[in-house]
Amino acid sequence: MWKRWLLALLAASSASAYAQDATPTQIDWIRKNAVVFDTVKAGHGFEDLQPLKQLIGDARIVALGEPTHGSREVFQMKHRLLEFLVEALGFSIFSIEANMPESFRLNDYVLRGQWSPEELIRGMYFWTWATDEVREMVEWMRRHNAEVERRQTGSPVAFTGFDIQTPDVATRIVTGFVEKADPGYAPVVRKAAKAATSAARRLGWTIGVATRAFPAERARGRKFVYHGWIKTQNLQDGYAGLLWQCDVEPDGRALDKTQDRWPTGTTDWQRFEITRTVPIEATHIDFGALMRGRGKAWFDGLEVLIDGHPISDLSVDLDFEGRQLTGFQMPSKGYEVTLDPAEAKTGRQSLRIQDAPPPLVEGGSDPARAAELWQAVVTHLEQNRLRYHEQQDLLSVDWAIVNARLVVDSMNVREDGGRSGLAVRDRATARMVEWILDQSPKARIALWAHNTHVSRQPGSMGRFLEERFPGQMVALGFATGTGTYRAGSRAGKGVSEHGLEPPPPDSFERVFQASGLPRFILDLRKAAPDSPESGWLLERKRFRSIGSMEMEGSFQFRPLELRDSFDGIVWIEQTAAALPLPR
Q1: Distance between CA 521 and CA 49 in Å, rounded?
Q2: What are phi and psi of 189, to 5 degrees?
Q3: Chain-wide mean pLDDT for the chain?
Q4: Which residues of 259-271 are buried (b: 16+ CB within 10 A; e: fewer)?
Q5: Is residue 48 pLDDT above 80, yes or no?
Q6: Do 242 and 196 share a structural domain?
Q7: Which residues contact 518 (CB under 8 A, 6 or more apart)?
Q8: Is residue 563 situated within a structural domain?
Q9: Using CA atoms, how far apart are residues 295 and 199, in angstroms rounded to an integer?
């Protein structure tokens, strides 16, 4: 306990470098309400975590988020919180943001000690979980279960997963079940499996973009003009256009929605312009180029003007005359975004965006057709469920059915192609969590996922779970201030270490830093609207959100209503990149 008193004393006596961004009353409220914890490392007891019992209460679901997919101390703290939930509160199921059947294989190790934990972790596909921190957690789960078995007291903890992104193993599970239980129907399932495999390999997202942040403080209340030239070739099922996006307080996001005026098909160079008066409440602006659908689009001679004055100091090549594409982010899967010296309007070369999906294999299928075939499989299995049960145990029957549903969901995500954000995927993962809990009606579950998924924002898994289990979920978001993280390179250099951008003045993290406390958990439910001390937690501010790919500068932060998203925040001032498992 003395460590927490010392931390509080040091915080109270120091003049934070960030105090100018937070009022003394806000800082004081954090210090009075923060649950300061001594370490992120597991195996150090739970004395400093006892106040969490009140925050968690009798919740059946505790969802643990993360600000990046590669932060060591965040992963370690999630491991420590899992220990607390299992040993102090009786939680018995763990579920991670990884493909469902592949994740369930970890039970062979954590329950029975079979197979290699490293190989099973890699078998979940995602490099994000192939880390030293996840391995240590898995090995602790095995030790806990062995101790439960030895003492014949307590409850073992199961390892599960809830994601639906990859259909391969699921199709094999369903095919194997049907070949035994309903061999006459097996050819239908094999045909559906071939279609799903083909669709999974063929398609990516349905939008290609090159985006750049514009300093919102330079545009607030002023006239923003953005124009440039666009040319298209055989552009089908979509359009090419100038991208302009503004996050606004308190109304959320404002987009340029005049899609009907953007070019499609084959068109020669045309000049397009977006003119907007930027709201005083603007918090973030993005601009750039985008293309939806199949085909090619070229962009050239882009220019931004504020109140009629050209902006030329953004460290970005808007005319695309350099040796490489400078200053743009290109989060485009299934598209090629590159410079093209063979096409130009205002100089020697231009920016080209074109769809680049993997080739369609012989006998292949699109996601819509594959989803249709697999929905028919689901219907067939459900209609014959009781008949199958005459010769098969019911768990095997239901396991085949839920894996068939996974394939439908996986195809639907590909067919949606990101048009609905994360909603299609997150609705499906919430259903998978519900299925896991239905198998153990009295069990309590700990979820591991990104902040984006565990939050209660519209379209998130957390929101869908709240609708299915009202009042039974506690969502804990994680935040960090400085350090490094592990992520994929947008320049095609693989997975490596990247730097965290310091929290900007209009971010929640900046206020957390001002408290001077290096580690704490804050119960956001204590925040009161219109309160000078805590009302800011109910406002819309920027909050760090980095996925599996690196993000630069202001792209690391997105506006968010923190209190509406999470019940509590786990703050860790400094974090380092997660440590990958040795190959």
Answers
A1: 9
A2: -70, -40
A3: 89
A4: eeebbbeeeebee
A5: yes
A6: no
A7: 7, 572, 573, 574
A8: yes
A9: 19
Kindly state whether residues 324 and 374 are assigned to the same domain. Answer: no
Here the tokens at position 430 are: 């919430």
**Could you tell me the CATH number of the domain that includes residue 268?**
2.60.120
Phi, psi of 476 (to 5 degrees): -110, 110
Q: What is the pLDDT of residues 64-94, one digit of tens each?
A: 999 999 999 999 999 999 999 999 999 999 9
Question: Which of these three, 401, 416, 431, is where a domain ends?
Answer: 416
Q: Which domain holds residue 549?
A: 2-165+487-575
Burial class (CB in 10 A: 0-12, 13-18, 19+), 377: buried
438 near 464, Cβ under 8 Å? no
What domain count does the chain have? Answer: 3
* pLDDT at position 248 over 80: no
Is residue 529 within 8 Å of residue 538, measured between CB atoms? yes
What is the tens place of the pLDDT at every residue in 377-416? 999 999 999 999 999 999 999 999 999 999 999 999 887 6
Domain membership of residue 469 (yes or no) is no
In a domain, 506, yes or no: yes
Find out whether the peptide bond into 559 is cis, omega within 30 degrees of 0: no
DSSP percent split of the chain into helix, strand, coil, nearest 5: 40, 25, 35
Based on the domain organization, do 31 and 146 belong to the same domain? yes
Q: What is the pLDDT of residue 538?
A: 96
pLDDT in tens, 439-491: 999 999 999 999 999 999 999 999 999 999 999 999 999 999 999 999 987 66
Of 32, 77, 23, nearest in space to 527 by CA? 32
What the block records as the tokens of 493 is 């250099």
Q: Are residues 191 and 217 in the same domain?
A: no
